[in-house]
Design brief:
CATH architecture of the largest domain: 3-Layer(aba) Sandwich
InterPro entries: Universal_stress_UspA, UspA
Structural class: alpha/beta
Domain UspA: 1-142
Shape: elongated
Number of domains: 2
Strand content: 15-25%
Order of helices and strands: EHEHHEHEHEEHEHEHEHHE
CATH class of the largest domain: Alpha Beta
Helix content: 40-55%
Pfam families: Usp
Family: Belongs to the universal stress protein A family.
Number of helices: 10
CATH superfamily of the largest domain: HUPs
Strand order of the largest sheet: 3-2-1-4-5-10-9-6-7-8
Protein name: Universal stress family protein
CATH topology of the largest domain: Rossmann fold
Largest sheet: 10 strands, mixed
Length: 286
Amino acid sequence: MKKILFLTDFSEVAKNAFLYALSLADNFNSELHILHITPIIEPKTDEERYRVHPLAQMFNDSLENDEWNEFKTEAKKLEQLAHNNNKLHVPVEFHFENGYFQDVIESHIVEKSIDLIVMGTSGNNTIDKKLFGSHAVRLIDSGFDIPILAVPAKAVFTSTGAFAVAVMLVENECVIIRRIATKLSPSETPLKCVHIVDTEEKAMAAQQKKAHWLTNFEGLDVQVDIVIDTDIEDGLTKYVEDNYINILSIIHRQLPFMKRLFNINHSKRLLRLSETAMLIYNVEDK
């Protein structure tokens, strides 16, 4: 993991996520790219510029100037925060961009060869509306091929913390599990995978499925715990608390429309966990 993209609006929630991202970059010897986006859409052609009303352009110019001044002030505060936490040696680049939220992020992912996106969460069952509002949910649903790390306000990074992945024991999870086991999970501890079922009968069937599924990870220290709970969210929450999990990875599936109507989107609901960072991977549902 060479490059991390941290998204911020300089809120209090984002400041904690910045420290988390900074520590993560330090632990993996990564570059940290800090991105602040303003919702100012610049005209791209002469025709578009001609259509912009002068008053609208004045408003945009004023807004951009205010945002830029705030950006410079807040960037200095983040540098001081890095200094106070002995992290000034971590390579950091600041980026101030105008445009549509998702378009700007996609551009940075490509241009900077980003490996991970980090953002703050409020811990109130959804990504902080003050921070990114519906944009963050769209980011999770966007299908980006890189993971998104959602960091709640009380989360503290630890290089030796426990790591767990919620799994369904299906084949299209295996590439992601191998990636996590080899690159992200602490080497001295096994990568914990947790599979939630709602009945004893399903638990017995899952034990057989588990044995076959684990053959995909020969040479890697991967274990699977089968947990019985009638509610997936509650089961995962209890598992995280009982096993002192610092990062819970969720494999977010792009469900077809009809399935969406009848399925709980657990990766969004689980963001309420107040001290556990969530690493969200996108995978095509099959």
